[in-house]
Amino acid sequence: MRENGRKQGAASPCxxxxxxxxxxxxxxxxxxxxxxxxxQKFASVHKVFGASNxxxxxxxxxxxxRGDAVNSMVYEANARVRDPVYGCVGAISSLQHxxxxxxxxxxxxxxxxxxxxxxxxxxxxxxxxENGLASSKLMSSPTKSLASMDMVIDHANIGESxxxx
Length: 165
Hints:
Layout: E1 2-3, E2 6-7, H1 15-20, H2 39-49, H3 51-60, H4 63-82, H5 88-123, H6 132-140
Antiparallel strand pairs: 1-2
Helix pairs in contact: 2-3, 2-4
């Protein structure tokens, strides 16, 4: 059974105390969040934030929020190790770019569906029961018929996000 990141009955230090080469006290602030069997977790956090800063952050937070804070620090530290310049902002930007591309593809697909439906609508005979009088009124109107209208897509702004400043 484990308690506070250490095996019960054994004096095995947590990953933080092992890396810092110090004795792991019973009330070690790192022990519940950096167990001995996950040394890389603390190593990356220590490399990015420093043990002293992590200790201060954890002690300033209520106990019920510390786990979430550690998970956030581990995520940010791992992102910083992978991408030292942008960290998780780089990952967020990459995901936002993918969203923009997918939204543009979706808009094109939706426009194509509308265009196909309009072609199908215009190919129906004007006196058929499905179309009724509405179709004959549309086709006899002096304006352009709906079938001849094409959808226009602004390709210049298609990659631009609604959320960008």
